[in-house]
Amino acid sequence: MRIIVTGAAGQLGKDLVPELLSRGHEVIGVDLPELDITDRDGVLDIFSEKRPDAVIHCAAWTAVDIAEDEDKKEAVRRVNAYGTSNIAEAAGSVGAKMIYISTDYIFDGRTGDRPWEACDEAAPINHYGKTKYEGELAAAEFCDKLFIVRISWVFGVHGKNFVATMLRLGRERKNLTVVADQIGSPTYTPDLSRLLADMIATEKYGKYHATNEGFVSWYEFACEIFRLASERDPVYSDVKVTPVTSDEYPAKAARPANSRMSKAALDAAGFDRLPAWQDALARYLDAVM
Could you say which of 82, 100, 105, 128 is catalytic? Predict the structure, then answer.
């Protein structure tokens, strides 16, 4: 299969491209500057020229707090909504399948501790989440052969992420505060890449949630990071993490309190769930330490 991967130079793209290549696919990885997804004509041209069988759309604006700045909001929308619309239109024009990578931030986090189902109604509470949901709507408008895959708390060896930040801060200071009242699931990019490669080979279109198994708070995640990191490097053995509430640690962008996501749609389609987040974290630390 000939597959275009947008955002190929990003954290997920750098793991996804080799995973697809290892399965014998022809992969066309694109990213800035060779392709600007907000350039509709440029997007249509490359799809018309390459005639892909599928596209996995990873490119996105992901700086959640910066997205709240008034002078950035339209730029965020151009990438996440209009750019996705361009990719979906181009995919539809050549009959290609499309996987759109979306986010837990399309939900408001107000279901108590009930995991969000893939069919639940969206109600984003920050601008990033709003534009990603607009991307979902645009993708569905233009592409019939569509998978929407929502992920959360992404980490991988090729980009900036919470785990890398904790490891850096743990070297710089020994007392850290981390939010304890936001619950969700980390997503390790090599594990997600394997699922996406499985998915694109099928015609089981629909909405899915794809994170590593298990629910955890950011505080609990940080504690496990330092517990496992200290087994590999004693510099982390005396790092103290103190839990705080979201109100005590204000950010520009509101975050959902409940980002638990149900994998029932994955199960129903016969896709394998991702491994436990603790297992994924251990493999990540083995790779970077």
Answer: 128
Q: Where are the beta strands (DSSP E) in the chain?
A: 2-6, 26-30, 54-57, 97-103, 146-151, 154-155, 175-179, 183-184, 187-188, 206-209, 212-213, 216-217, 240-244, 274-276
Q: pLDDT per residue over 246-285, tens digit each?
A: 999 889 999 999 999 999 999 999 999 999 999 999 999 9
At 51, which helix (H) or strand (E)? none
Cα–Cα dist 79/253, whole Å: 18
Cβ density class 72-89: b for 16+ within 10 Å, e for less: ebeebbbbbbbbbbbbbb
Q: What is the four-CA torsion angle of 22, 23, 24, 28, rounded to 10 degrees?
A: -70
Identify the residue whose tokens are 């290549």: 21
| Token pair for 45 | 């041209």
Specify whether 219 is catalytic.
no
3-state secondary structure of 178: strand
CA dihedral 270, 276, 280, 282 (to 10 degrees): -150
Length of the chain, in residues = 289
- Contact call for residues 120 and 260 (beta carbons, < 8 A): no
Instruction: Identify the residue whose tokens are 């505080």.
Output: 219
Q: 176: which strand partners?
A: 241
17-61 pLDDT, tens per residue? 999 999 999 999 999 999 999 999 999 999 999 999 999 999 999
What is the pTM assigned to this prediction? 0.97
Tokens of 60: 């996105």
Q: Are 7 and 34 in contact (CB under 8 A)?
A: no
